[in-house]
Amino acid sequence: MATDSDSALSSVDVESRAQNPDQPLARRELRLRAEQEKVEQIARERERERIRSNAVKRAEEIRREKEATEAREAQAARFQDQINKSKEVPTLPPDAAGQLPGLSDTSSTETSQNNATPESAVAANSYSERGHVGAQRRKRAEEKLRKKAEAAAKRSSRKTNPPRLTHPLRNVLGRSFVVLVIGGLFAVLALPATGFDATNTGWETATTGDDQSVKVASTGTEAEQVSLGEFAVTTYSDLLLLTYGLTSGFKYSVTNSGPIRWPFPVVTPISSGFGGRSAPCLGCSTNHQGLDFDPVDGTAFNSVAAGEVVEVNDDGYLGKWVVIRHDIDGLKFDSLYAHMIRDSTGVEVGQKVAAGDYIGRVGNTGVTSGAHLHLAIIVDGVHIDPFEFLLNNTKGN
Predict the structure, then answer these.
(1) Where does this protein have compositionally biased stretches of type Basic and acidic residues (predicted)?
(2) Residue 89 falls inside a structural domain
(3) Most buried residue, 129, 203, 319, 342, by CB count within 10 Å?
(4) Would residue 28 count as lying in a domain?
């Protein structure tokens, strides 16, 4: 049960909101700014992490390139050693010089030539031919090793192009653009996204029982057409009017007095009327059985009349909702408030409320296309048009 102090606080809250209607809009702007700053902080942290990751990768690439260069230089050195070794002329032992014709000193050579026999001459010619063939093979091997050494030297001196790094300014501009886009999405999502298809104009009296009658909308005299002309957008309500085309059918005033009142202490934009419409979201109805008010998310709303709370529920379609039963001088009806923030209501079944008492705050629970208050008026179990009902039963309209 609500205490007297709770009722007093609720009254103060309602009065402060009536005197300062732009306060919810300022809170919404603060929330959007905080969300945008959070997104920017995340972007900066990701940028720093990316720079650190690139630095680590670059250091690893430099280390690998250094190891590869050292390996190529070592291979080139080995090839050069092989070339140098191949150029060395093999020497024979001293005792072998006298055993092989043609390898002794000049005097011994001349002596051997003077004393040469046909057999020794044949042996000398055979050794000379073998030496010539060996020299050709050695020359080809040296040329092959030289080419390998030159190729290895070219590979070791070849510069490896470093990986291309993205310019920091370009990264900052790209991140800033992403942040602006995300901030714009937050702003768009904060606006109401419900559709509107109002076709109810005119009046008639529908008898609902022997003891009461209720005015509801029907076909009749056409509503006055209003042209925007040179309309200037100066308020949030004006922006909604231009965005959703609410140029007629929802003109009313709020006095905050009388037995039956509007759910908000100030005139609040209405985005979807009663009856047939195009479904504004997946799962939304095409035969709307209520009236959708679109103030800022979290705005407090009040009971339209004195009565007793008969149901407090929470489901996947209407979200958090409350039903209040009223009997105003014999006019009996139920008012239903849906999609409110779950922990925003403190009313209980059986609790008595007065007209204008705090009920809850506008939320986005259940199946919705955006935060709004779904208000339904039910007479003898039949949903009627809440706008026409309130327009004809509140003061100042």
Answers:
(1) 25-75, 140-153
(2) no
(3) 319
(4) no
Element (H, E) at 243: helix 236-244
Higher pLDDT residue, 22 or 105? 22
Distance CA 99, CA 118 (A): 17
Answer yes or no: is 112 within a domain: no
Buried b (16+ CB within 10 A) or exposed e, 47-57: eeeeeeeeeee
Q: What are the pLDDT digits (tens) for 324-341?
A: 999 999 999 999 999 999
- Concatenated DSSP letters for 275-309? EE---SSTT--SEE-SEEE---TT-EEE-SBSEEE
Alpha carbon distance 244, 236 (integer Å): 12
Q: Which domain holds residue 234?
A: 192-393
Distance CA 375, CA 293 (A): 8
Q: How remote is the C-alpha of 24 from its chain's centroid?
A: 26
Residues 6+ apart with CB under 8 A from 371: 192, 294, 296, 297, 298, 339, 362, 363, 364
For residues 373 and 296, give the distance between their C-alpha atoms in angstroms, rounded to a whole number: 10
Report which residue type is found at 282.
Answer: L
Q: How many domains does the chain have?
A: 1
CATH number at residue 255: 2.70.70.10
List own/partner pairs for 87-91 with CB under 8 A and 24 or more apart: 87/142
- Cβ(202)–Cβ(218) below 8 Å: yes
On whether residue 226 sits in a domain, the answer given is yes
